[in-house]
Each structure stands twice: as C-alpha cells, then as structure tokens.
Amino acid sequence: MKAQLRALIEQGLTALRTAGTLPADLPSPDFAVERPKERAHGDFSTNAAMLLAKAAKSNPRALAQQLVDALPASDAVAKIELAGPGFINFHLAPGAWQQQVRHIHAGGPVFGRNASGGGKTVGVEYVSANPTGPLHVGHGRAGVIGDCIARVMAANGWDVKREFYYNDAGVQINNLAISTQARAKGLKPGDADWPADAYNGDYIGDVAASYLRGDSIEIEGHVVSGKDDADDLDAIRKFAVAYLRREQNSDLAAFGVSFDRYFLESSLYADGKVEETVRELIAHGHTYEEGGALWLRTTDFGDDKDRVMRKSDGTYTYFVPDVAYHLSKWQRGYQRAVTELGADHHGSLARVKAGLQALDCGIPAGYPDYVLHQMVTVMRGGEEVKLSKRAGSYLTLRDLIDEAGRDATRWFLVARKPDSQLTFDIDLARSQSNDNPVYYVQYAHARICSLLRQAGEKGYAHDAARGDAALHRLDDAPAQELMRELSRYPEVVEAAGATLEPHLVAQYLRELANAFHGWYHASPVLVEDADLRDARLALALATRQVLANGLDLLGVGAPESM
Question: Of 28, 193, 308, 375, which has fewest CB within 10 angstroms of its CB?
C-alpha cells in the first residue's frame, strides 16, 4: 500500500509542477508515507507538503490542500484529511485491504520480499566462538540473531554470505591443549599437578579419551586423528580443536544455524595477511613508533585515543588481526559486512573501523556494521540456571535446546532487541498457553490448518476464486483489522532488513496472531453461505501464508497441528 500511495503523491506533485505551483525543476523530496500512531488519524500519513513548502514559498498547510486537490482519484482511498501544520492523512477504502489479501495469495512464499538490496553481496558473520568448549547460551543468542539477520537481508534482495570466524590462535588454544594433555595423562581438576589455566569441564575428559583411542575427526574435508601419545602436545592441540569444532557445528545444526564459510584466524598469519595489513598501514602514513611499540593513529578516524598495534615484544594486539580479517572481507567482494558480537567487544569496534579507513583502499566509512547482543539469564522454577556439569562453568546451548526445544529457544533468543538484557524463562518457553508467544503464533497457523481439515470433513470444497471475488463481504471490524495487519508484513520485512533488527518480525507475528484469534472468535468460518465461507477461508489462508513466511524468517517451524 505504501508504494501505491507514494506513486499517487508523485502524480500529484507532477501536477503541481505543471500548474506552476511548484518549480518545474524541483525534485521530489524523500517524503515519508507512514502509518500514524493513532488509527483516528487515518491509515497512512505523508509529510510531503511540509518538505516542499519553503521551495514553493507557501504555507505548508495551504500547499498540503493544493496537493490533495491535485491527487488523481483512486478507488483505494476513501477519504483524505489535513492535520496539524500540513500532514496529509489517508483513510483507505475496504477494497484496498481486500486487494492485499489477493496479493498475498498471488505472492505465496515470496510475499513480503523485496529487491531493495539490489543483489549486492553482504557478509554476515556471527557466533565466531573460540573452539575451546561447547557453545553457551550467549553463543546461541548470537547464532539466532545472526542467522535471522541473514534471512531478513536475503528477503530484502541481498546476496548473503554467512561466515563463522574461528579464533584458533592464541592463549586460549594453548590452554585447551594443556587441559586435554593433562586429562590424557590421567589428571583431573583439583589434582596437585592440574594446570592453573586449564579448562575444568567434563568435556575435556571426553576429548582426551577420544584422542587416546585414535578416533578420526572429519572437519571441512580434512581428517584429524588422535593417537596413544599424551606427550605430543601439537597433535593434541590439532585434535582438540577439530573435536570441538565438530561438536559446535553439530550443536548449531541442531539449532538450525548454518554457514557458507568457516574462516580460521590462523590463516591470516599463515597467509601473511596480518603482516601485509601492517605494511599497508605503515605505507599510508597512519602509524608511528613510540616506547618501542608501533602505534596506529586511530584518533584521525574518530577513536578517542591512538592504539598500539605491535607491542614492544613484537606481538600484535588483538585488533590487528581483526582489521586484517575485515580487509579480507572487502577483498573477497563483500560490498557490505555485518558482524554480530557480544556486547563485551564494544571497546574494539572503533579501532577496527579506524584501521580499515587508514588502509585508504576504498572501504566505505562505517564498514562493517556491528550488531551487539547483551547477556542472557536463564530461569527455571523462579531460580537462575547457571551451570552445566559437562561444561563446568556455564549453561550450554545444547542444554537449553534439549529443555525448551529448538523453536522456542530460537524465538525467545531473537524476539527482543539485541542490545537489551534477556531473561529466558524455561517454564514459559515450554508452556502451551497464550502467554507463550511462540506457542500463540504457531497455534494460529495450526488453527487455520485445522479449519481446512474441518471444511473437508464437512464436505465443503473451498473455491479460491470465489473466495477472492467475495472478499467484499468481509466488512466487519475484526476482518478489517486482520487485513490491516496482513498488509503491514512487507513493511516489517523491509524495516527489519534496514535496521538489522529481526526481532521486529517476532513482534509483528504476535500482533498478527492476536488479530487472527480475535477475528476467528468473532467470525464463524464454516458457515452455510458458500460465498461468505470461501471469503473467510480466503482471509484465513492469507493469514496462514504470512504467518508461515514470517516464521521462516525466524527459522521457526509452522506446524499444521498442535
């Protein structure tokens, strides 16, 4: 509907230019066509006249009236009103909402999608956990947010590449190796010789046992095998990383999260990309030496202070490989990059962006887009759940999936804005009640499927063409409200993609389900009147389609029965 109204307004502006009310060469401004907060103010509103009043040397409200007078007639518009200093409010005719139902039927699974991304390539990086243990609940939130960002961006016409960045170099990997070695030598947490920085979870014992058995781990086309040698620390390191990468991949698969590419931090060093990045930064004159260290002038690019790149001992600070990694994204054709991280990474963002700008290689300002998520608190029976015996010090994603199910876990972890603290109530997630949002939405879909089964049992053959033709019969308030909600879906998809906020889809689906349940209770569907019955079934089927489309963007199932 917004596109249709925008086209109508553009025709009115063209008429005003022709009449001399507006300068003939005056381009149209980027005017808004929005749904007012108050329904009494109409279905849509535009500020077009207010933006053009100065150029027209006119009072905004007077110009608004002239624009209204210049608008061509439209069957979709029932009434137009002026409001405030010059807003134009549109009240749509019932036929406009009914036409949206037909559009949904015609679009089917692609209804709501658009081509605003223009097929440009975007890399979406998410999870990117260290391969040192099972994924925790925070990784789960990162996984579903990143996965859903990828889904909504694809729905907005982007060519999406999903990427997992493995931090497989550094102190934490060495700690993993010595932990596994200690277990392989028969030690356990609490023993006198147990390494101080070792990981204490039971999973380390599983890794060590598998290594000593000589098990083979296949990961991305490579096979890593264990052996009965607890002294070969390098072999233990390679095996442990492969073992835990496979385990993480398995957990993510169970969560419905996948990737197109796995990128290893170690490859940046092996391929000389870190050194290459440093040489380029030096060559472009954005570095200096002080106190035996190499510094980057990040303050030239908006950072609050300059940052050390290479310490006096010759080692690089952690943001340097991050710059090299994001440079590789640009070099690999990612016209846009989205990186999903935990909020604890906030401090490094400015310096990474500064490093990329300092390379002077055409990377746009603001590259990459960062999406940060806050912590998750898990509750059961009114008490916080913190520990997993297997992990030792945290609740794993697998634990949560096993308790709450994949659909509920995905919904609850993505349904709130990423930068908000999240409390995950296991009892609520498992409940079959209207208080459980994912159950409420899925039940709406299942209820519609049940309607169709009941129609068949009663001998009613649904005539889709007759239903679409009879939509004018649906002139009651609950039906009109449901149609209005259905019409919002393309706008929600566009907004979720533009703002990288897939939780908007979850919020919308709950509102749509509420409108459907309200209409369902007010309007018996399987009535004797065939035209009315088919019209109501047509509305129900459109609702089912939008529910399924929206649930798919969240990676949540659309069950046919519950």
Answer: 193
Closest CA to 71 of 22, 32, 1, 13: 13
Q: How many CB atoms lie within 10 A of CB 489?
A: 22
Give mean pLDDT, residues 540-552.
Answer: 98
| Per-residue pLDDT tens over the stretch 168-194 | 877 889 999 999 999 999 999 999 999
| The residue to which tokens 């030239």 are assigned | 300
- 30-51 per-position pLDDT tens digit: 999 999 988 888 999 999 999 9
Task: Give the pLDDT confidence score for residue 14 in this predicted structure.
Answer: 95
Tokens of 92: 């749509």
The pTM is what? 0.93
Question: What pLDDT does residue 532 have?
Answer: 97
Q: Are 2-92 and 433-553 in the same CATH fold? A: no
Token look-up 């999973």 returns: 203
Rounded to whole angstroms, the Cα distance separating 556 from 548 reads: 9
Q: How far apart are CA 101 and CA 103, in angstroms?
A: 5
**What whole-number distance in Å separates Cα of residue 287 and Cα of residue 301?**
13
Q: What is the pLDDT of residue 9?
A: 96
* pLDDT per residue as tens digits for the range 120-129: 999 999 998 9
Q: Are 76 and 42 in contact (CB under 8 A)?
A: no
Q: Measure the CA–CA gap between 31 and 58, rounded to whole angstroms.
A: 17
Q: What is the mean pLDDT of residues 96-115?
A: 96
Helix, strand, coil shares of the chain as percentages rounded to 5? 50, 15, 35
DSSP for 423-471, written as a single string: EEEHHHHH--STTSHHHHHHHHHHHHHHHHHHHHHTT----HHHHHHTG
Question: Domain 2-92, what fold?
Answer: Gyrase A; domain 2 (3.30.1360)
Both tokens of 250, joined, read: 């398995």
Q: Judge whether residue 392 has pLDDT over 70.
A: no
Whether the predicted pLDDT of 7 surpasses 80: yes
CB 165 within 8 A of CB 265: yes
Distance, CA of 353 to CA of 348 (rounded, Å): 9
The correct CATH number of 433-553 out of 1.10.730.10, 2.170.150.70, 1.25.40.10, 3.40.50.620 is 1.10.730.10
Contact in structure between 388 and 342 (CB atoms under 8 Å)? no
DSSP, collapsed to helix, strand or coil, labels residue 495 as helix
Largest CA distance in the chain: 92
Which residues, other chains included, contact 558 with Cβ-Cβ below 8 Å and sequence gap of 6+? Answer: 442, 445, 547, 548, 551, 552
**C-alpha neighbours within 13 Å on the C-beta side of residue 48:** 30
pLDDT at 170: 76
- Tell me: pLDDT of 221 over 90: no
Question: For residues 23 and 55, is the Cβ–Cβ distance under 8 A?
Answer: yes
Q: Is 292 left (phi over 0), alpha (psi -120 to 50) or beta?
A: left
